[in-house]
Amino acid sequence: MFVSTRARLREVLASFTGQAPSTIEFEYGTTGKPRIANGSMVRFNVSHSHSVCLIAVARGREIGVDIEYQQRPMPHINREVFSPNEAERILASSDPLTSFYDHWTLKEAALKAAGVGFSSPSAQTDLVPGMVCPFRDFAVRNLNIAIGFSAGLAIQIKSDEVLPAVIVHHTEA
Predict the structure, then answer these.
(1) How far is CA 101 from the centre of its chain?
(2) What's the pLDDT tens digit per position in 117-151?
(3) Residue 147 neighbours by CB distance under 10 Å
(4) With helix as H, strand as E and coil as C, how does the chain read?
(5) How far apart are CA 158 and CA 162, in angstroms?
(6) Is the model more confident about 75 or about 104?
(7) What is the spatial distance between Cα 42 and Cα 61, in angstroms, rounded to a whole number?
(8) Closest Cα to residue 4, out of 64, 53, 55?
(9) What is the residue range of 72's domain?
């Protein structure tokens, strides 16, 4: 899956950069977040679960994406990951399994966009779909990608600015 995902990522990024897919080089930030080398303004993020790969691309905006297959039984609600409000919404939902994964993918996408992990204090931020995150001005939303999957997207915005265009591509590898 890694090889086919990386090949597809190179094809998608080539359409944004004008480079040949084989010439795109990657570098990694201090937290391991990949980016195109040589100062490109094209930002991207990739996630995959089972046979589905999700690629999100934006120009000049940090971006994060996550996709998860909704496995049963529902995982334990980790209080170090979810805020009390998030945990309450998950448990009160008419479909706690989907709610768990919808919240998880939003959280993961926002943390990936910000370039931090679950150990960050930002992980306790209460996220609600469609809102601007209190940290680093990221808008978050869930994506309807495939039956049995949850996906989340986070993209950096500036105050008083319309959400920039984003291309999300998913493929069954």
Answers:
(1) 13
(2) 776 666 677 887 666 666 667 888 899 888 899 99
(3) 6
(4) CHHHHHHHHHHHHHHHHCCCHHHCCEEECCCCCEEECCCCCEEEEEEEECCEEEEEEEECCCEEEEEEECCCCCCCCCCCCCCHHHHHHHHHCCCHHHHHHHHHHHHHHHHHHHCCCCCCHHHHCCCCCCCECCCCCEEEEEECCCCCEEEEEEEECCCCCCCCCCEEEEEEC
(5) 8
(6) 104
(7) 8
(8) 53
(9) 2-172
pLDDT tens per residue across span 29-56: 888 889 999 888 999 999 989 888 899 9
**CATH number where 14 lies:** 3.90.470.20
Q: What are phi and psi of 109, to 5 degrees?
A: -60, -45
Q: How far apart are CA 58 and CA 42, in angstroms?
A: 6
Domain count, the chain: 1
Q: Which residues of 12-41 are buried (b: 16+ CB within 10 A; e: fewer)?
A: bbeebbebebeebeeeeeeeebebbeeebe
Size (the chain), residues: 173
156 and 113 Cβ atoms separated by less than 8 Å = yes
Output the six-digit token pair for 149: 């999957």
- d(C-alpha 41, C-alpha 16), whole Å: 10
